[in-house]
Amino acid sequence: MKEKVKATILTAEDIERIITRLAHEILERNRGTENLVLVGLRTRGAHIAQRISDKIKEIEGSDISTGFLDATFYRDDVRTRLKQPSVEVSSIPFAIDDKNIVLIDDVLYTGRTVRAALDALMDYGRPACIYLVVLVDRGHRELPIKADIVGKNIPTSVGEEIKVKLTEVDEEDAVILTEVTE
Amino acid sequence: MLKSKHLLGLDGITKKEIYAILDTARHFREVFDRPVKRVPTLQGKTVVNLFYEPSTRTRISFELAEKRLSADIVNFTSSASSVKKGETLIDTMKNIEAMKIDMVVVRHSSPGAPHLLAKVVDANFVNAGDGGHEHPTQALLDMMTIREKLGKLEDLTVALVGDISHSRVSMSNIYGLRALGTRVIVCGPSTLIPREIEKLGVEVYHNVDEIIPQVDVLNILRLQLERQQSGLFPSLREYHNYYGITRDRLKRLNRNFTIMHPGPINRGVEITSDVADSKHSVILDQVTNGQAVRMAVLYLLSGRKQEEGE
Fold first, then answer.
1. Is residue B8 part of a domain?
2. What are the Cα distances from residue B55, in Å, to B62, B63, B105, B108?
3. For a disulfide at B129, which of A132, B135, B255, B274, Cβ 3.0-4.6 Å?
4. Residue A2: inside a domain, yes or no?
5. For the segment B216-250, what is each residue's pLDDT rounded down to a tens digit?
6. Given this model, what pLDDT does residue B308 score?
């Protein structure tokens, strides 16, 4: 199995602009920061959540509670796979009851991770509502799940792969389209 | 992440595997602080707790760990079973296997019992203590507690004090800590320290006052009175005078250190009550971490089929 880079879809500047827009759209939808909390999905969704949180602070001047969630234990493939994936610590150090949660991930694909995250969030409490915000929507949903705010729609084929790179964990900021060849 | 489909002991475990378990356990610990203290990870899996020996902490800890992972649980106690009618260990296990189970947690008074069962039955096995041999999850929770309190596991000196010969906790701790390169001291009367234990990479001392100034962690072992023959030391009082950890002895330690004990405590014998309940004691943190470590082990082993993988 080899990976071939087909195109760079988003550059660092593009990502920066999208984060700014996502922050504005979240504030518009929520009409300000009241009851607003952000939850990013580990690993990269958490970094995007942190960036959006910083951006909202820049715009509105107020701190938004931001948590991070690893939904591995709620995934539906835990029981069938032979090797368990490593996990990172979830940290939602605030009550989510009656809050408007913005759930943030890097790529929306089959929708299974989001399903697991929704189940996990329900175990933390009863939020007033949950919005889904993603940096990239690449299609091919297997569950009836839809993002409320999308950074960029990138139609892909199943053999292709979307790689989101963020400086917090990778060496650069970029979104790359790759193809897996045998 | 783990090489084997079982956790039978820490003999031969790698540093990477230990840290994989401890990191996963840290995540599970966070689950205890949630309003719903349960995750659906092992839904549909059946776990058998096969306890041939009395246990409070380990048994409840495993049972709660399994419940918090949403597994189905069967509890087996030898005293209330056909073992009383003379059924052999292997027959009992094969019958339970025929009822379609996925994982087995075994506690047995004979060293090697879980290893034997793992050969005849196709399930994931976790050793919850086999005689004086190993008790891997206890050593892992000890390591998790040390790491939590002192921020690291390497560059430390850990002393195991007391009955080394009859202690499965000490064997697992030695294997695990030595795999990380931690300095390990064992200290106790020579009748309670196995010969040639130096070959496992530990230092042997017989005077507890000599080791106290050098250590970061004192892991005080229970005198396993039920496993000992008589005559290994003159009296409990004499043992306490020479090896009991008292406040007076600890005055010599003027830095950050941690007192551990795997329980159950013989208060006034290997440790005095004021030390066991002091601020240096992390005995109850050990119990909390035990649950998290057991959840991590069950999670990481679940679904593993091959003996060798990666």
1. no
2. 11, 12, 13, 10
3. B135
4. no
5. 999 999 988 777 667 788 888 999 999 999 999 98
6. 44
